[in-house]
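Batch job 17 of 40 flagged for manual review because the log was empty.
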Amino acid sequence: MASTTQFLISLPPKPPYLLSYSSPSKPRFINITCCLSIQQARNDQTTSSGSNALNGLRVAFAAGGTGGHIYPAVAIADELKLVNPTSEILFLGRPNSMESTAIPSAHFEFKSIPAVKLVRPFFSLRNLLLPYFLIKSITKCFTLLSKFEPHLVVGTGGFPRKEKCVVCGNPVRLSLKNSVSKAVSRLHFFPWLEKMEGSSEEIKVILVLGGSLGANAVNIALLNVYSQLLLEHENWFIIWQTGVESFNEMESLVRSHPRLLLAPFLHSMNMAYAAADLVVSRAGAMTCSEILATGKPSILVD
């Protein structure tokens, strides 16, 4: 049983640096489509109390591929557990993928489903086996969902997404709502600053984000200039997220420096944004939403 609800989105006040840009004159809406199980629909007809319907709520999330798909789902799951601690959460994704490590790290149950894709060229021998792999994937998915019996399935994008079970939009990570001081967040990444003499107000931190999987253009550009930037500006610090796939290569090419933090992925994004004076990033949907929410000056690479 599917239902679609239309929500009116109220635009937040403009940051000072966006005052020169015009806002859309028409109100913005998003449609949220949810698929409810038949069993839950029947139960809802016989349940008079809305609070009772939330007891034992089971929600399955289908998200994967990149952090822009995974972490909005994690934020929704965190909020569900906060509102209703008795709810059960199950994440579905690909084996040996980013979600296979990120979801367990967020303390949620994860089950893998093999992804099926077409191989180029189209008339490839491997594509002849596509029906077999597709049936195998569907069977695995059906088995997991039949055992878990979710009341609701939520998809935020990526390979495991099902179009009829998608929550549309780009929600900002829940952790961004937590207020963290700039001084505390900088100590989180550079603990030795606590013993540094002089004013910490002169410190400038550049946050470089290549996306969860990395962006070659951003990584190569910074690789060519980071040493000179740190040499010419003694009060500059760089927090550099290379992306998981590019980390080993960048780590072998970058020289160690006390004012440079190299990481494959930043799990504490609220701390990273709080520490930053400037964000350099590829223009991913989630990153643009986070930059807008935090109001940080940024250089975006399309």
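Reviewer: the log was empty due to a logging misconfiguration, but the result itself is present. Residues 1-12, 14-51, 161-178 have pLDDT under 50 and may be disordered. Unflagging and moving on to job 18.
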